[in-house]
């Protein structure tokens, strides 16, 4: 371990000011996952009930590991590889693991940014292109595929991605996405070309603008009909969820994901601080900001979801009223939204056979609210189309997503470039600009995998597995390395040297015992549940009804399960194997037909057995 004077004398880039450092860390942590994953998990686990384990684990799991990464990076003045190699050469693998996770996550993250750019460019139209189905080539009718599904689904799956029917069917390159990918990686390269000297200035926009846009959306959302219903649904707790292990598992994983722990970016950022910077205060500030932002973003999301659900509910009631009026030849004002339930009950009592034969839809407000947040490109865009001045709101929305994605990607690139320098993979004379440019070029080439027509399915796999088990494993080994190899007493003295006082008893207990046990429990429980589950992914296949490998009984089941479009579960060719990017051994898997509901929009999904 270097002496104090040696550590302090290591020449590193410096932040222009403390605000720049905090904004960079906030931008890195507050990404797309906080805006979309947290609201979805709240919906999945009983609304406000999920916030209880989330806030508890944020305190006992997130804050201690966050301070650990801040302190070790600031003290040793190195990136994720250099820090762990300085402690022990045998720990170099922790840094390499963080670098690889940052690299893999950065690949699919920038693919999402490419999709955001595509939607942003298409938002400068009135009406928005996903508000109506296009005509066929003869201009005689709408495209059948769009009519079978919905306009927002069709625009996302067919127009934006031109998705194939299986992950095994690459379908070739979809060039509009390639162009957007090139633009996305170019923007990232320009912002990160000189490290924090350029990305540190970009965060003044990418970290602050999302909060402004979220505030605008919240104000607008609260003025929409049904917004309060959505927020009420979010904060109505289902206490039964608190006794379910999966609730605590998801809360723990979300804390890891929300803070960007074990990616290496936070270690690199803190290494640019002055040695005597108050890293304890920084960890507390960032923890509070991250937790409050997650709740804040959830309120914004569910104000819009409440409006969307109310619009669907009102439309459902209106359709049913029109059916009843036409069937029973009633005056137009005899059935209204206010007396609909009583009128339906009266007609059902007097004419049960007629009512039974009608196409009366079940209009359930709670079911519409609990459909989940789903994909930003589907659910939120659908809600925006129903808002007055929809193009303006669409532009604001996708600018916000663009800023959220870019600010997180700055940390991912830092988590790759700095370890590459520490590993001396390339000659020392290579400047930072060359390594950043090379990283972005290689990443763009690999991202062409996601620009195929099967790219959505690969993005799904990367999203599900690249940032789950690896992060938990790396985080666990980070705590073991600092507490039991580097030495907790030595670590305490380092913090005392930097901050001026020894860490309090809270940090001691969490570092030594509570945090490692929590992460270990989450990791083991996650692996056990994953082994018991089958690997699934959603597939878009509007021609599924013509598939020759389905018998009549299977087709009948499909018609009962599917909503739109018609989708089957596609068998993977015998020679294809699926590998999970999480250190789990490669598994050859056979495919069997099995029907189930997808957690998103009730869609069927492909299942590997």
Automatic annotation (TrEMBL):
GO biological process, one term: sodium ion transmembrane transport
Gene Ontology CC entries for this record: brush border membrane
PROSITE patterns assigned to the protein according to its UniProt record, in alphabetical order: NA_NEUROTRAN_SYMP_1, NA_NEUROTRAN_SYMP_2, NA_NEUROTRAN_SYMP_3
Presence of keyword Nucleotide-binding: no
Binding site for Na(+): 27, 34, 404
UniProt keywords, alphabetically: Membrane, Metal-binding, Sodium, Symport, Transmembrane, Transmembrane helix, Transport
Pfam family, one: SNF
Subcellular location: Membrane
Main location class: membrane
Gene Ontology molecular function: metal ion binding; neutral L-amino acid transmembrane transporter activity; symporter activity
Membrane topology: Multi-pass membrane protein
Spans traversing the lipid bilayer: 21-39, 51-72, 93-121, 173-196, 208-231, 251-272, 284-305, 392-413, 434-459, 465-488, 509-528, 566-587
Record carries keyword Transport: yes
InterPro entries according to UniProt: Na/ntran_symport, SNS_sf
Family from the record: Belongs to the sodium:neurotransmitter symporter (SNF) (TC 2.A.22) family.
Protein name, entry field: Transporter
Organism field: Nothobranchius furzeri
């Amino acid at each position: 371990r270097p002496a104090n004077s040696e550590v302090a004398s290591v020449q590193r880039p410096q932040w222009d000011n403390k605000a720049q450092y905090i904004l960079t860390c906030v931008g890195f942590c507050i990404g797309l996952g906080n805006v979309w994953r947290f609201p979805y998990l709240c919906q999945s686990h009983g609304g406000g009930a999920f916030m209880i384990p989330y806030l508890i684990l944020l305190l006992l799991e997130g804050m201690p590991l966050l301070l650990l990464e801040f302190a070790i990076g600031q003290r040793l003045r190195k990136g994720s590889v250099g820090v762990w190699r300085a402690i022990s050469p045998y720990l170099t693998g922790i840094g390499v693991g963080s670098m690889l996770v940052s690299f893999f996550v950065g690949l699919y993250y920038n693919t999402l940014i490419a999709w955001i750019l595509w939607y942003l460019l298409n938002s400068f139209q009135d009406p928005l292109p996903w508000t109506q189905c296009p005509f066929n080539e003869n201009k005689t009718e709408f495209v059948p595929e769009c009519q079978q599904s919905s306009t927002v689904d069709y625009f996302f799956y067919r127009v934006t991605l031109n998705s194939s029917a299986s992950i095994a069917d690459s379908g070739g390159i979809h060039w509009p996405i390639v162009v957007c990918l090139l633009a996305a990686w170019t923007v990232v390269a320009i912002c990160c070309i000189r490290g924090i000297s350029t990305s540190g200035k970009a965060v003044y926009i990418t970290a602050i603008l999302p909060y402004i846009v979220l505030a605008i959306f919240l104000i607008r959302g609260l003025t929409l009909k049904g917004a309060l219903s959505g927020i009420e649904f979010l904060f109505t707790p289902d206490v039964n969820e608190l006794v379910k292990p999966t609730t605590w598992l998801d809360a723990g994983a979300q804390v890891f994901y929300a803070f960007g722990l074990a990616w290496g970016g936070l270690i690199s950022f803190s290494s640019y601080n002055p040695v005597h910077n108050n890293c304890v205060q920084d960890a507390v500030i960032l923890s509070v900001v991250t937790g409050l932002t997650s709740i804040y973003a959830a309120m914004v999301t569910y104000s819009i979801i409440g409006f969307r659900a109310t619009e669907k509910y009102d439309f459902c009631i209106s359709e049913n009223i029109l059916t009843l009026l036409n069937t029973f030849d009633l005056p137009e004002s005899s059935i209204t939204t206010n007396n609909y339930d009583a009128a339906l009950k009266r007609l059902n009592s007097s004419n049960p056979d007629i009512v039974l034969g009608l196409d009366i839809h079940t209009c359930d407000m709670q079911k519409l609210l609990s459909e989940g947040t789903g994909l930003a490109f589907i659910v939120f865009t659908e809600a925006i189309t129903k808002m007055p001045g929809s193009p303006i709101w669409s532009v604001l929305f996708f600018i916000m997503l663009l800023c959220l994605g870019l600010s997180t990607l700055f940390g991912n690139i830092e988590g790759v470039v700095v370890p590459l320098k520490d590993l001396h993979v390339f000659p020392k004379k290579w400047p930072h600009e060359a390594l950043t440019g090379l990283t972005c070029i290689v990443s763009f080439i690999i991202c062409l995998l996601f620009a195929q027509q099967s790219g959505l399915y690969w993005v799904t796999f990367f999203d599900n597995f690249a940032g789950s088990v690896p992060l938990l494993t790396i985080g666990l080994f980070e705590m073991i390395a600092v507490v039991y190899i580097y030495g907790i007493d030595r670590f305490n003295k380092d913090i005392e040297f930097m901050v001026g006082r020894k860490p309090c008893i809270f940090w001691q207990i969490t570092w030594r015992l509570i945090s490692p046990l929590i992460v270990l429990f989450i990791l083991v429980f996650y692996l056990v549940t994953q082994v018991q589950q089958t690997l699934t992914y959603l597939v878009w296949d509007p021609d599924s009804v013509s598939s020759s490998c389905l018998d009549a009984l299977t087709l009948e089941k499909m018609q009962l399960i599917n909503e739109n479009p018609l989708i089957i579960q596609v068998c993977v060719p015998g020679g294809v194997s699926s590998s999970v990017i999480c250190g789990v051994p490669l598994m050859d898997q056979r495919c069997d037909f099995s029907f189930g509901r997808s957690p998103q929009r009730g869609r069927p999904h492909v299942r590997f057995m």
